[in-house]
Structures are given as C-alpha cells and as structure tokens.
Amino acid sequence: MDARHRRGQLAETVATRWLVAHGYRLLARNVRYRGGELDIVASLGALLVFVEVRARRSGSRVDPLETFSLRKRQRVIATAQRWLQEHSPTVRRCRFDIIAVREARDGVLSIEHVPGAFVDEGPG
C-alpha cells in the first residue's frame, strides 16, 4: 500500500470518528460499484448523508476542497443513487457533504466539514 492510499484511509477513519462524535450514525464505508465509490454513508436523524473525504498533506499547493471536480461529483451522485435503490429506496431527504482533512508538517490533522457541499440537481 502506497503513502497516498494510507493517507486516504487515515483521512476516512478520522472523518468517520469525527462524524460519530458529532451525532452521526455510520451506515457504510468505502462502498464501491463499477464507476464510482462512496467514502462514507451516514445518517443524522432522518437525514441520509453521503460524505466525500478529501485529504492533503502540508505543503500541498492545492486545497483538498479544490480537488473535487465536477466529474467526481457526478460519479458520487450516480453511486449514491444506486446505493439508495439497493438500501433505502424510500428515503426522501439526503445530503452530500465533504470533509477535508489536512495534515500539518507536525502530523496534526485539521478537519473541515462542509455540509451540503453539493446537490443532486437531477434531470429535472
């Protein structure tokens, strides 16, 4: 496993712990379908939350929030729709969040949670 993959796994673990500590219930992690992946699926009361985790180490020229492209967003939405069909077809309220995990030179992590970072605008 390379350093980038380990950093990603650590960031997802940190994000999961942060969510649970803030009242979220973990439903799934690292859900993979052909063409997409969901980092974290959680609930907050009756709200279903799909969380994309973005991580960068100190010294990176790009902020983790800037690394989430339109194409990636579309894949997350499509993957979430499939997950909903299989696991929770009657859910009416869901939200797409991003958690940015930044690693400082001294190893300290900072977390930024962006609730409702993007939406599924659907076909109409």
Structure characterization notes:
The mean pLDDT is 83. With 124 residues, this protein is α+β, with helices and mostly antiparallel strands. It is globular, with a radius of gyration of 14 Å.
Tally of DSSP helical segments: 2
Q: Globular, elongated, flat, extended or rod-shaped: what is the shape?
A: globular
Q: Helicity, in percent?
A: 25-40%
| Order of helical and strand elements | HEEEHEE
What structural class should be given to the helix and strand makeup? alpha+beta
Order of adjacent strands in the largest pleated sheet: 1-2-3-4-5
Fraction of residues in β-strands? 35-45%
* Strand elements, count: 5
Largest sheet: 5 strands, mixed
Please describe the topology of this protein.
Elements: H1 3-21, E1 25-33, E2 36-44, E3 47-57, H2 70-87, E4 94-103, E5 109-118
Parallel strand pairs: 3-4
Antiparallel strand pairs: 1-2, 2-3, 4-5
Task: Provide a concise account of the structure shown.
This protein is α+β, with helices and mostly antiparallel strands and 124 residues long. It has 2 helices and 5 strands; from the N terminus they run αβββαββ.
List key phrases describing it.
5 strands; five-stranded mixed beta sheet; 124 residues; alpha+beta; 2 helices
